[in-house]
Design brief:
Helices cover about 35% and strands about 25% of the residues. By secondary structure, the protein is of the alpha/beta class. It has two domains: about 5-135, Rossmann fold; about 150-439, L-fucose Isomerase, Chain A, domain 3 (Alpha-Beta Barrel). The model has no long low-confidence stretch (mean pLDDT about 95).
Length: about 450
Amino acid sequence: MALNIKPVIISSRGAGVFVDQDGRMELVADQSKNRDRIDLLLKDLKKEMGKGVNILKELYVSSPKDYQSLFKEKDAIDVVLLYVLGVTPIDELLNWQGPIIAFSGQYTPAMALYAVAEERHQRKNLFIALDYQDISNILRVLDAKQALSQTRIVLFGSPPTWHLRWYAFPDLEAIRRKTGLQFIPVELRELIDTVRKVDPQKAASQADKWMADARQVVEPTLEHLQESAAAYLAMEHILRRKDAQAMVINCLEITQSQKFSDQIINPCMGMSFLRDKGIASGCEMDIPGLLSMILLSNLGHKPAFMGNIVHADPENNVIKLSHCILPTRMPGFEEDPLPYTLRDYHGAKGVTAFTDIPTGVEVTLARVQRNLERIMAFTGEVVACEDTTFCRNTVTIRIHDARDFIRQAEGNHHAMVFGNYLNGLEMLSSVLDCNFQSL
């Protein structure tokens, strides 16, 4: 859903103060000319923001009483874009609890600094934008936060006993209070029952599509592919029925024990394509890992990969990130999928995909502390992508300091997304009231 942006233009009793690129200030007292200048600013805004936001009718303010109409339509406004083009008291405006972005023209911050430079350090949702790129970046962060607050996560199964000895399970209520995220438990037995009810023809059709789109099919049998497709369709059905936008699964009960292994195939293939559809899907009931994926995916508007840190070389400053679920649409949800090969699961029964991602791509990696107290993130460059069977996809990434990364890592699983989103993560961390650490 696009954010609703309300432009609020502050002037000095109808006169506007404009600053040109050379720093010369000009007072435009003629109200007609002033409106013409503002109309050009609003035209530029709509052009620069594109179709990703919904820009509402502007509000002109030349005295404090003019703010009253703003509060009357507060339920329809996500963000106030405050054009500071004059001097009018803003005390009443600061009662607005939603996000405010102050702006006084491209590369001309003087009036915005006058108005809110001190106040922005007192609240986390008050920003100053230097240019349209700043506005766009701030809106991306606010959109990511809003998406987070509207996300429902299905928890397939409970964390395995041994896993609790490795990771302290998060306080889900604390996360809900901080983000608005909602968690919906679903027993693995319900998933298995849903798999059994999947129409075999639909599963066969889905398996055929996977094979047709794949570069190659190596080990998986048609039977295993259809079982994998049935698991995918069952997960998708439950997510849709629960109105959920993300999931995490205790897949270890399926792949590493005999409790359910004869009743459902490994879910990896289906989770790959759920991620391609914008459904962040976490492995091993690792909720902090899933949250890391959601944050990066929301910021980048791309699917995220989640993997084990299987190697860290401090001499060459490279790390290897390895797992079985590498989305094919890593470049973006609307981009062409990357080539993939259908393979087995860890050299045995099951289905995975090796996705061939290109080298030279800049990536952002991150992991959150279990209750979102801290986000640790860094950037790197993909230097290799290999099919390593156990796990299937291993991505080698050159980073700034491998030793320092291991010193500060919050856990094993780290999320990865194409692109550099450190600034966005830092801003999002502030909005969510959690610490941020970049390497």
